[in-house]
Write a structure and sequence with these properties.
67% of the residues lie in helices and 0% in strands. It is mainly α.
């Protein structure tokens, strides 16, 4: 079954959130809870979520999110990214820098 536009958007946001969380080279428990809580609430297929997590745990490269899909709703993307970045109680410089780069790539103000 082909994913709907909404499903595809949600999967791409999850990919992006994992990249943000991993930008400081650690995935905290709080970050993992936020990402997988969102994924499950958005009905992202569990095998997709687990595959992304296993890739990260194995030290593999995370798949790049589709920026064109994310550009359809930049405000939603940035809101999720900012929420994730502070979920572990800190806002690392690497996370801040990554959000600024995402904002620029999305063409958002």
């Amino acid at each position: 079954m082909t994913p709907s536009a909404e499903d595809r958007f949600n999967i791409e946001v999850i990919k992006l959130l994992l990249q943000i969380a991993w930008s400081d080279r650690q995935l905290t428990h709080a970050e993992q809870l936020v990402i997988f809580g969102l994924g499950r609430s958005w009905n992202v297929p569990e095998p997709e979520l687990q595959s992304l997590l296993e890739t990260l745990r194995a030290g593999g490269s995370l798949p790049e999110p589709d920026i064109e899909v994310l550009r359809t709703r930049p405000d939603d993307v940035l809101e999720a990214a900012r929420a994730l970045a502070v979920s572990d109680g800190s806002f690392a410089d690497s996370e801040k820098g990554m959000i600024e780069r995402i904002q620029a790539r999305l063409g958002a103000s």
